[in-house]
Design goal:
31% of the residues lie in helices and 22% in strands. With 353 residues, the chain is α+β, with helices and mostly antiparallel strands. The strands form three sheets. Strands 8-10-7-11-9-12-13 form a seven-stranded mixed β-sheet. Strands 1-6-4-5 form a four-stranded mixed β-sheet, with helices on one face.
Length: 353
């Protein structure tokens, strides 16, 4: 059964009866309304033994090297083709841990909710959080809820913090990168940003552009198990897109990066949407992709294995690390021209992750 069908089944499960149809300031008071909201929604839906302790923190058993990540999520609209802010929040932190070569285990979950958010919208967000946690194999073990006055938020903001044990075969660090390393992109770029922008701009295509938001930890850990330290660096091109993570990496390793336009996968409709809005897809956010820097001698095998995974069907080797032009990223166009890929100087897209 597909991800969409599973999520739709959960979204159509009966919503519990809440006292009020919208979130009020009273839901953030710490009193009766807060407890009813948490009891009926969060604790029932995300139930697990650690969360049921209802302590201000969580007691965790961890062994060995540990990865830790936190992120805050604000997106408009909060529901978009292919997902919502709840799914985005879980997947975002799970993927950050996976980029460290870690096995994500536990999350904290904090809401800042604007007064007036519809209760059924909050419920759908909670269901998406539960679904995403199940897909990724993580547990929410602690959290917090605050409510702000109408006009002082944007419906809902979510913070997730994650923790997990680093895989014993993982050795993920920028200083492992060598000249000659190949750069693999795990799928088609720019889908998330353009899914949101197409809704905002009212763009219509033959089929709906869907966000690529998903958890990547199982895919990543399978590659680490097979290739270990030959995977030198992993990074996810979220805000600022592929161009930004490549430029940041080139600067940090003092080496050059060459990428090839013909080898960068992009869906035709996503490409058309970018062109229509005057956006460079290299700078558009992604939420279900990763970039891997791998040893040249295993690159083709890594690509072969990745393409067998649902999350890597459209994976390509899109570039290489070079000793020339240190700190710079060059794009070779389909017709052989070259241009420098710079850091995004400002905000290309408003609030998409």
């Amino acid at each position: 059964m597909s991800k969409e069908k599973k999520l739709n089944m959960q979204l159509h499960s009966p919503m519990p009866t809440f006292d009020l149809a919208v979130i009020t300031l009273g839901h953030g008071s710490g009193g009766l309304l807060t407890n009813k909201l948490l009891d009926t929604g969060v604790f029932d839906l995300l139930s697990n033994p650690i969360l049921e302790e209802r302590h201000d923190g969580a007691f965790l058993d961890l062994q060995g090297k540990t990865a830790f990540s936190t992120d805050s999520f604000l997106v408009s609209p909060i529901f978009f083709p292919g997902g919502n802010i709840g799914e985005l929040a879980v997947n975002g932190t799970v993927n950050d841990l996976a980029m460290c070569g870690a096995v994500p285990k536990y999350l904290s979950l904090s809401f800042i909710i604007e007064e007036g958010l519809k209760m059924d919208e909050f419920w759908k967000i909670l269901v998406a959080i539960k679904f995403s946690c199940e897909q990724a194999g993580v547990q929410v073990v602690t959290g917090d809820t605050k409510v702000v006055e109408k006009g002082k938020g944007d419906k809902i903001f979510i913070n997730t913090t994650g923790i997990g044990a680093v895989h014993p075969k993982a050795n993920i660090a920028a200083n492992n990168i060598r000249a000659g390393d190949r750069i693999i992109i795990s799928g088609q770029i720019a889908a998330h940003g353009m899914a949101i922008m197409s809704v905002r701009e009212g763009l219509e295509f033959d089929s709906e552009i869907q966000s690529d938001t998903t958890s990547l930890n199982h895919t990543i850990l399978d590659l680490i198990e097979k290739f270990g330290s030959d995977i030198h660096l992993l990074t996810d091109p979220t805000r600022g897109g592929v161009a930004t993570v490549l430029k940041e990496t080139a600067q940090s390793i003092h080496k050059g990066i060459a990428i090839f336009q013909k080898d960068i996968p992009i869906d035709d409709q996503v490409g058309s949407a970018c062109e229509l809005l005057g956006l460079d897809p290299l700078y558009v956010a992604n939420e279900g992709l990763f970039v891997a820097f791998v040893a040249a001698e295993v690159a083709e095998t890594v690509l072969f294995e990745l393409q067998k995974d649902t999350n890597g069907l459209h994976a390509r080797i899109m570039g290489t690390v070079t000793g020339a032009h240190p700190g710079q990223v060059y794009l070779e166009s389909a017709i052989g021209g070259k241009r420098v890929v710079s850091m995004l100087p400002g905000e290309q897209l408003p609030r998409i992750c």
